[in-house]
Amino acid sequence: MATIDSIGRTTKFVPRKKKSKRTVADWLLLTGAIVVGLAIAVPFYLILINSFKSPSDYASGGPLQWPAALNFDGIINFWNRVAFPQKLWNSFFISGLVAIFAVVISVLNAYAIGIGRVRGRTWIVVLFLLANVLPQEALLYPLYFMFKQVGLYDNVWSVIIIFTVIQSAFGTYLLSSVYGTFPKEILEAAALDGASRWTILWRVIVPISRPTLAVIVIFFFIWTWNEFLIPLTFLVSNANQTVPVAIAVLQGDRLMDVTTTSASALLGLIPTLVFFLIFQRTLTRGITAGAVK
Amino acid sequence: MATIETSTKPSTVSTTRVKKTRVHEESLLPNSGKGGGGFWLYLIPGFVLLTVIVVIPLIWNIYLSFTSYRGIKPPKFIGLDNWVELMGDAKFWTSFGNSIAMIVAMVIVPTLLGLVLAAMLFDLVGKKFGGRVASFLRATYYLPQILPVAIAAVVIGWILRPDNGALNDVLSAVGLGGLQHNWLGSPDTALLSIMFVMVWVQLGYPVVIFMAALQRVDPELYEAAELDGANWFQRFRSITVTIIRPEIFVVTLTSTIAALKVFGPIYTLTRGGPGTATIVPSYYSYSEFFQSQQVGYGATIATALTIVTIVVAVFFIKVQNRAERAESGR
């Protein structure tokens, strides 16, 4: 629709011709929208240019100046200081496993709720939703105590187990409604062929709903990657920390000079930017689908 | 209440996306002669995990709020003492006051601004300057949303550094050196700085949701209103806002819940300080758990926060249901 009016074509048959006239007010509003966009983007730009400066370059040129010479000291310092590859691996390992486990649990729950239509399903869904709405502080100390008792404190598996439950609670809520509208004819055909419930789930329902499941997996992965409170509490030793935790706990440290701090922010935002670029289409589809009833 | 479920009454909780139009109770799968109970089996793993990781800790935490517990000796039951203390605890009330500041920064400002920006991008930029310009701007607005919130805090915190931070540096460069400030370190600006971080993080979320919702708006409605002499703002208020109201509800609900839970930026930037200037309930309970070792009292704060969160969620859903009913009754 929008492209019709682009470049102000003068064909008489375009019905919304009058809309393609751009008034001064239009240009002013566009400028306003761009200014907001710039204001949002400026912090990213500042972090980017200042991560490649030496502290003296920063001191002489200030934060707005383009780097006098490309300097990787800040990045290398921080990279080595936190053993960044290890933190990346921890985050990948935790988020990846959580995404897979949580989607399996979500599928099982949603099969019973959306397709099996078990009794009291509305309340079951509310219960799962509640688990997702709760502040994590309300579970924090008992979980801390429990995981200490079973010897999983300061172990990535504690975080994997907790987030599998929290993410699958949301996944159950979402998938139950998706499965609630699953085409009945397909299920009947499969049942007539003598397929068992277990077979129907894995051979029919999961393959057909794979696009939805893929979106959910990506969301679980990114949400888990971005989590803070529970990884901070449960992963106390350096070797187990995730990317956001490792970076956040070093803020204000006296060994962190201005460009190293900037580099730490840069290293923290690169992975999520990469995910965003890779999954952009899926993400925008998913974000809006989640809110539109 | 749960027994009503056996009748053919449709779900009363409208935000659950269980299809309301289907009123029959049978499963979508025809029974293969095995009886209807089999589907419960599939809920077992999910229920066991939910019980162990959520239900038991939640109840345990509520119990701890009635105890004196320092994490070493077993908890001692002290009745309502923690709750009485909480009601008179100025720090606790400050923390909830700061939660309201977080609601301003994460719900009110982004939703209002997001409505205007979304309408602007959709109506004006999209139609007159092309859809690509609009989606590019939308992606820019959304950029901070994809960051871990702790990293977003590091980014803005870096700009607000007191000694050689970018903001102070720029201020002195343009001759406003007098305005230089220890933004995160002074009680008068610390909370505002955190609010600034949250607006930056949050703004893209309503814009993206509202722009998607605006696609439902029938352009003919606008044209008709235009012919009737309605100006842009009147059209915006009576058509746009009415049609995308469900999304406005979802955005305000989810953002309010998120605002009540803010933790990462506070931990990263100020640890609640200076003094109690930026303390929020989640950080307060965290510090009681792991720094002061006042586990019982920390559990009380966490329980209070949980109650507030659930009350807010239920309130929103009730209001939305009423609005929906009023609409369908029309």
Keywords:
heterodimer, A: 293 residues, mainly alpha, MetI-like fold, 2 domains, 13 helices, B: 330 residues, 2 strands, 65% helix, disordered N terminus
Structure notes:
The complex is a heterodimer of chains A (293) and B (330). Helix content of chain A is 72%, strand content 0%. Chain A has 293 residues and is mainly alpha-helical. In chain A, helix 3 packs across helix 13, helix 4 crosses helix 10 and helix 8 runs antiparallel to helix 9. Chain A starts with 23 loop residues before the first helix and ends with a helix. The N terminus of chain A is likely disordered. Chain B is an all-alpha fold. Chain B has a single domain, classed as Orthogonal Bundle (MetI-like fold). Chain B is 65% helix and 1% strand. Chain B contains 14 helices and two strands; from the N terminus they run αββααααααααααααα. A two-stranded antiparallel sheet of chain B has the order 1-2. The radius of gyration of chain B is 25 Å and the shape is globular. Chain B starts with 39 loop residues before the first helix and ends with a helix. The N terminus of chain B is likely disordered. Classes of the chains: A mainly alpha (293), B mainly alpha (330). The interface between A and B is large, with 124 and 113 residues. Chain A: Belongs to the binding-protein-dependent transport system permease family. Chain A: It is found in: Cell membrane. Chain A: Its main location: membrane.
Summarize this structure briefly.
The complex is a heterodimer of chains A (293) and B (330). Chain A is mainly α and 293 residues long. Chain A is 72% helix and 0% strand.
